[in-house]
Amino acid sequence: MALAENNSEGRRKAPLELWIRTTFLTLGSIIVTMLGLMFVTFIIGRVMPIDPVLAIVGEQASKSTYDAAYEQLGLDRPIIVQFAYYVWDVIHGDFGKSLLTARPVSQDIARVFPATLELASIGVFAGIVLGVPLGVVAAVKRGSWIDQVARVIALVGYSMPIFWLGLMGLLIFYGILGWVGGPGRVGIFYVDIVPSVTGMILVDSILDRNWLVFKDALSHIVLPASLLGYYSLAYISRMTRSFMLEQLSAEYITTARVKGMSESAVIWRHAFKNIRVQLITVIALSYANLLEGSVLTEIIFSWPGIGSYITTALLSADMNAVMGGTVVVGLIFILLNIFSDLLYKFFDPRAK
Amino acid sequence: MVDIQTWRAWLLTDTPTSRRHAKLSTLYQGWLSFRGNTMAMVGLWILTLLVLTAFAAPLLAPHDPFAQDLANRLQPLWSDGHAFGTDSLGRDILSRLIYGSRITLYIVALVALIAPISGLLVGTVAGYVGGWTDQVLMRITDIFLAFPRLVLALAFVAALGAGIENAVLAISLTAWPPYARIARAETLTIRSSDYISAIQLQGAGAMRIITKHIWPLCISSLIVRVTLDMAGIILAAAGLGFLGLGAQPPSPEWGAMISEGRRFILDHWWVATMPGMAIFTVSLAFNLLGDGLRDVLDPKDSEK
Predict the structure, then answer these.
(1) How far is CA A291 from the centre of its chain?
(2) A131-171 pLDDT, tens per residue?
(3) Under a CB-based contact definition with an 8 Å cutoff, are residues B61 and B95 in contact?
(4) Contacts of B139 in chain A (CB under 8 A)
(5) B186-195 contacts: CB < 8 A, separation 24 or more?
């Protein structure tokens, strides 16, 4: 939301009323979307074929215990009132208690989220570092072997089930070659050795200057992170290529070439400069996709992140944990989308 | 017998004699340019094979896909009578893959019907009626678009209970918003065109304009989008199956088969590898076909 205000500051030239209006409209639509997200999650939680009361009091409970728990959970109130209470709780960061871990869901999420963040961030980083240059070269040397390679990489990335590729990776690089660590974040000897500061084990082990743990964690994260990196590489390189092609066919490029500008200046100083904004939005989207794509990856690699948290909760009918996890992932997704939208509006003069 | 050359000439004419003639001629020329695209043809061939396999599954499968044979469990590739080996219950993997193609086709076909049609309905109504209807419908679309797809499908299946039908519903629920967006955008451009005003002046109602004059024009971009989405649908269905939320055992669904094989991945790799190959091949075929169709139907978006 602070972003929305920043954005409107950037538009000082526009009449005051206009930007106040745009800010309110943007804020309004963000709020409506978030309420909608919570409503859908809430309804899903309510129609789940699991009796939340039985889950707490157990099958053997007497009628009066059952009724007491029923009332304590507020299930006797009208559904819309229940929803209002739910929103109120969520705003205050209260997602209820997890049945599985017997801790508040918010604490659980705070514990598992850094693991997902660490994994997805390394994945996106790899995707950007490899994908952007690949896309640019593929566009410039269109039809060359590099372009063909880029095309195959993207096609395979769009067609391969991520969980299967992960399994094959484990089979080859862990099972047969033994180059990387197996499932999990660190080997069993290194669990809980470094104090958890950020929750991201690579950062924590650097802070603790414990290079043994760092090396072990690195060998464990390499495979799942490359897997996610491959998927974001496929997407980012494809988008970069098509943005670049669009720019390279524009007339100002011809003008620049006619002026006698060197080819690298034409590509990087002219064409590439103009796709930066579009690229940032693509990167934000691919980040959002990776947070989601990590659900299946985390299962394969027994990675204790938010994806495996939600799935485990689902399979053991832990309603609060499922709803909490879904809302948190959804909110991050929305925020990243809005962020990329705003960046676009902020940097692209045409959108003003 | 009519000479093929005459037919060709009739189809390739520049001066069609009737509306049907013109339509057929456009279709034929589209087919010709599609046929020139080798990769797209490869995709089409694979999918044709898939459909044939699904129909002829009882004839093609060497064994009963459900028949357990614990004496011959986890047989390797190319063992006696089991080209792709057997799984942990001694069931023939090849036969299970062949029968599994039916489930894959069933899921894809249902989602490919439900999602675009609901999207088309919402999008065209929002675009044509405008005003508050547009605001409300598009807000709802945005909410569903804001959900991470897999997570929403997961939560939805959890609420409804695991099973193929619920997986189809869950995937459709996450797949329709982009169609609504596309249909709305197309409707907005079409709505302001002169021929729509002309029919409006002739007294045509909203219903008639939407169904007879707007829908036909939205179809081609939707078809391209559907074909490109199919790969994603297959991957989503396989993902749900893998998590145990899609088709239930002993159903030979490919994702569920990978999940079964996962336990033996280090010692008996083929159990999980073969169904993965099947998923990859089919979704690759859909991607190739989609790229080819986009070039034919939607030249302005093609990458050439």
Answers:
(1) 3
(2) 999 999 999 988 889 998 998 999 998 899 988 999 999 88
(3) yes
(4) 29, 32-33, 36
(5) B186/B123, B186/B127, B186/B214, B186/B217, B186/B218, B186/B221, B187/B123, B187/B124, B187/B126, B187/B127, B187/B128, B187/B214, B187/B218, B188/B127, B190/B214, B190/B217, B191/B127, B191/B128
CA gyration radius for chain A? 24
Helix B215-242 and helix B270-297, axial crossing angle in degrees, nearest 10 = 170
Residue B246: helix, strand or coil by DSSP?
coil
The answer to whether the pTM exceeds 0.90 is: no
Distances (CA, A) of A333 to A92, A273, B79, B151: 20, 27, 48, 11
Q: Which residues of A touch B265 (CB under 8 A)?
A: 167, 170-171, 175
**By the CB < 8 Å criterion, does A25 face chain B?**
no
Question: What is the complex's ipTM, to 2 decimals?
Answer: 0.83
What are the backbone angles phi and psi of residue B86, rounded to the nearest 5°? -125, 160
Among B142, B147, B288, pick the best mutation site for testing chain A contact (most A Cβ within 10 A).
B147
Please give the Cα distance from B112 to B67 (Å, whole number).
Answer: 32
Q: Which of A:106-125 have CB within 8 Å of B?
A: none
What confidence tens digit (pLDDT) does each residue in B69-82 have?
777 777 777 777 77
Q: Which of B146, B150, B269 sits opposite A171 (nearest CB)?
A: B269
Please state which of the four CATH numbers 3.20.20.100, 2.60.120.10, 1.10.3720.10, 3.40.1360.10 is assigned to the domain occupying B33-55+100-297.
1.10.3720.10
Does the distance separating the beta carbons of A330 and B151 come in below 8 Å?
Answer: yes
Contact across the interface for B284 and A159, Cβ inside 8 Å: yes
Model confidence pLDDT, tens digit, residues B91-112: 888 889 999 999 999 999 999 9
Structure confidence at residue B17 as a pLDDT band (50, 70, 90):
confident
Cα B29 from chain centroid (whole Å): 24
Burial of B235 (0-12, 13-18, 19+ CB in 10 A): buried
Q: How many residues does chain A have?
A: 352
Task: Please identify which residue in the block is written with the tokens 């053997």.
Answer: A60
Q: Compare CB distances from B151 to A29, A168, A292 and report the shortest one's residue.
A: A292
Phi, psi values for residue B92, rounded to 5°: -70, 120
The Cα of A62 is separated from the nearest Cα of chain B by a number of Å equal to 27
- For residue B287, list chain A residues with Cβ-Cβ distance below 8 A: 155, 158-159
Q: What region does B55 belong to: left with phi over 0, alpha with psi -120 to 50, or beta?
A: alpha
Smallest Cα distance from B104 to chain A, Å: 14
CB-based contact (8 Å) between A51 and chain B?
Answer: no
A170 close to B (CB below 8 A): yes
